[in-house]
Amino acid sequence: xxxxxxxTTVAGLSGxxxxxxxxxxxxxxxxxxxxxxxxxxxxxxxxxxxxxxxEAYFGALRVIxxxxxxxxxxxxxxxxxxxEVEGHWTKAKRxxxxxxxxxxxxxxxxxxxxxLAARWISASDADNVAEMRQIAIEFRATVRQELQDGSRG
Length: 153
Prior knowledge:
Blueprint: H1 4-75, H2 79-88, H3 91-108, H4 111-125, H5 129-148
Helix pairs in contact: 1-2, 1-3, 1-5, 4-5
């Protein structure tokens, strides 16, 4: 009779220990799920921002290509080609394209790209075609480097 309480006590303690460890496992599981959700959301944000940056860079590259093509046609006296380009890309369309590209660059571009864009605008306003060509080379190289290096996203 003196030992009758031991079995009941051991069973009760086993139940308490089991409950405590079940609670701990649940807490750790919830914490792990929260961490995984946060990591997933962060990765999705990075991917979205990388996509926005890429689209901004492609928009700027279209502006650069269009402006340099127009200048090349002027230099070579290819007035028919120039009229064809300007017929499709009217002044209003070019201004809209440039504004959209600049806005996207200011929002999503790196500091180096924004600096090159500011230099491009200055050179373009001054009709400095040699400077525009040099900036275009630098811009393309920087875009290529940034888009191929996923760690900058």
